[in-house]
Amino acid sequence: xxxxxxxxxxxxxxxxxxxxxxxxxxxxxxxxxxxxxxxxxxxxxxxxxxxxxxxxxxxxxxxxxxxxxxxxxxxxxxxxxxxxxxxxxxxxxxxxxxxxxxxxxxxxxxxxxxxxxxxxxxxxxxxxxxxxxxxxxxxxxxxxxxxxxxxxxxxxxxxxxxxxxxxxxxxxxxxxxxxxxxxxxxxxxxxxxxxxxxxxxxxxxxxxxxxxxxxxxxxxxxxxxxxxxxxxxxxxxxxxxxxxxxxxxxxxxxxxxxxxxxxxxxxxxxxxxxxxxxxxxxxxxxxxxxxxxxxxxxxxxxxxxxxxxxxxxxxxxxxxxxxxxxxxxxxxxxxxxxxxxxxxxxxxxxxxxxxxxxxxxxxxxxxxxxxxxxxxxxxxxxxxxxxxxxxxxxxxxxxxxxxxxxxxxxxxxxxxxxxxxxxxxxxxxxxxxxxxxxxxxxxxxxxxxxxxxxxxxxxxxxxxxxxxxxxxxxxxx
Length: 477
Ligand code: NFE
Prior knowledge:
The protein is an alpha+beta fold. It is 34% helix and 17% strand. The strands form six sheets. It has a four-stranded antiparallel β-sheet. The chain has a three-stranded antiparallel β-sheet with strand order 6-9-10, with helices on one face. A three-stranded antiparallel β-sheet has the order 13-14-15. A hairpin with a 7-residue loop joins β7 and β8. Residues 459-466 have low confidence and may be disordered. The chain binds NI-FE active center.
């Protein structure tokens, strides 16, 4: 007899994600026969932007998420540059790559140590306090001295993330919520001191990636070999590409492309459509390319189960993220699974950090960072980039110098989407289907699959009243 399991909220993701599983028990283990992924909050930024000055988009869209604001700044800036018909000078382009790179490194370290690694470590006797308790403890988890070492790296990773933020802020003005990315370049000045400070932080982060992060990921991969065949999902991969190596963006550190049904192919933006049969939007909001997209919420829509729309490429489900980027670029093609996602992310961190060291040497103190261009009265633009979690696109139209349409497709919309109009499950839903779960009271297998995508539903504005009495945690190592 089938039964249901609700992981609500599914924790250690950014934002608010619910996963509903239907399971059978054909033998000693449970098997997932159906999975539903729900984004539980409305974002609405597309509508907030209507009627505003186009240049506001860079700042407003960063408020979608505190984890990947730089990617939204980059996407909005590229959108505006296409609309304004301006390209950045080399210094501006490189500075933007360095700021985005700093955010990638911060986010990848965050994902492994603070979101995913706790799925693999038994921290009993090491972290016996909230927020690390209550937690699942399963027989396959790594324990003892290895767990203690990994917890030590968990703490070290917090400091590394702070350094990545500091590094980005050198050229971004601050982190998160950066100030310096603008259509036409970057407003930050290049000085020898800034380059020296950036380099010192980057070297520390590179050392951590090479000596701690990559070895830890490989250790987890070796300890959990079964996860190299678990959680494949749709098998299609999509990347818009990122880190422009020339002014026109025709050359990138990580290329644009896709891998669909076993074939490599170019990306044709006209093939992208969002569907809403199972999303809380009016039927009119669905079956549209984002260049003509609209966002009309429909809170009580019958049959809907997510605030995330369902983006599809040529009607097909695609996974996005570090594995998609590294796969399309030819850097990592071992397989598509839980471990491959985690490993590709770590290898990408190394690739980006090493490239950043090279970009620093290309900066020219005193050279121009920015080209001014007045805003057009009417125009349209598309900004495609990559956020740490995958392909990110902004689509904009301007009329009478104001935004008349703005549409955003985030990476997590691709990965955590609900079913589409053809009832095809989203990428995470497919990766969960068929999953074997040993103990329904501790469905750690499902967490490992979902976390491997590093989902971020953090697409709403939240208000919170800070607690007046702070609490201090002491980690005993
Ligand atoms: Ni909120 Fe983001 C990234 C974007 S995920 S973290 O990376 O865009 O949808």
